Amino acid sequence: xxxxxxxxxxxxxxxxxxxxxxxxxxxxxxxxxxxxxxxxxxxxxxxxxxxxxxxxxxxxxxxxxxxxxxxxxxxxxxxxxxxxxxxxxxxxxxxxxxxxxxxxxxxxxxxxxxxxxxxxxxxxxxxxxxxxxxxxxxxxxxxxxxxxxxxxxxxxxxxxxxxxxxxxxxxxxxxxxxxxxxxxxxxxxxxxxxxxxxxxxxxxxxxxxxxxxxxxxxxxxxxxxxxxxxxxxxxxxxxxxxxxxxxxxxxxxxxxxxxxxxxxxxxxxxxxxxxxxxxxxxxxxxxxxxxxxxxxxxxxxxxxxxxxxxxxxxxxxxxxxxxxxxxxxxxxxxxxxxxxxx
Length: 342
Description:
The protein has 342 residues and is mainly α. The chain contains nine helices and no strands. It has a single domain, classed as Up-down Bundle (Rhopdopsin 7-helix transmembrane proteins). The protein is globular. The N and C termini lie far apart (56 Å). One of its GO terms (biological process) is positive regulation of MAPK cascade. This is Lysophosphatidic acid receptor 2. Belongs to the G-protein coupled receptor 1 family.
C-alpha cells in the first residue's frame, strides 16, 4: 500500500518535483510580484466598474447583461485569487501549510474556471439568439440564471477536485508546475480548457457563417441597407477580438500545463510558468473591454460613473448604432437580426 505524505511540508513536495523554492527575495521574484499586484488591482477596478454599471443602470437589467455581470464577477474573483497568490508566493511559499497551499491554488483554479465557463455560456446564448432570430434582450431569464448558477457550481467542483485528485499518496505522479497536483489532473484540466476554446471557436464560426450567408441573400434585394454590411464587418471584428484574446491569453498556459501533465522532461516548463499565468490572468482584464466596452449603453454608463454623475440611465441615451437587443428588420422576412456587437 502506498504511503501518504499528508503531514509533510510544502518544501518536501517542491524538492521532490525539482521545483526550486526561493529562500529570499530575488529580483525576478520582486518584478513578478509587482507586475502581478498591478494586474490584480486593475482587474479588480475594471470588473468592479462593470458590475456597478449593470447594477446602477436599470436599462441594463436584462438577461444578457446578467451574463456579462456574472463574467465580471468571475473576473473580479480571479483578481482576488491572483492577489492572494501574489501575497503568498516567492519565499512565502515555503512557509505555507499543505492546506493553505491547496487553498491558494484552489482559489486560482475556481476563478479561472468560472471565467472560462462564463465565456462559453455567453457564446452559447449568442448562438441560440442568432439561430432563433431573437434579440439578446429577450433571452429567457430562468435559463440565464441557471447558467450563471451552473458556472459557479462547475468552478467550485474544479477547485475542490485537487483535494482528492493529487499526488500526496503517489509522489511519482507529482507535477513540476504544481508539485502537490497529480500530472493526470493537470492534463485533464488543460484539455478541458482547450476543449472549451474549440467549442467557442466552433460556436462563433457558425454564427459568423450564418450571418454572412443571410447578408449575402439580403444583398440581392433592392432595399438592402448599407447598415447591414456594417453589421457583418462589426461581427467579424467581434469574433476576431473574442477568439484572439482567448488564444493569446489562455493557450500558452494550457499548452505548458499539458506538457507538464504528459511528463515532458525535456520541456523547460518552469522557465515560463509565471509569465504564462500572468498572461492568463490578463484575460480577466481583456474581458471587460471585449464584452462590455464595445456596448454603447455600457460605455455611456461608464462615463457617468467615472464623472460621478449617477443619474438615471433613461436620459441622454446614445444614438450611435444599435444597442444589444435592438431589432434590425430584414427586408426579405421582416424578422429581427441580433446586433452586430453580439
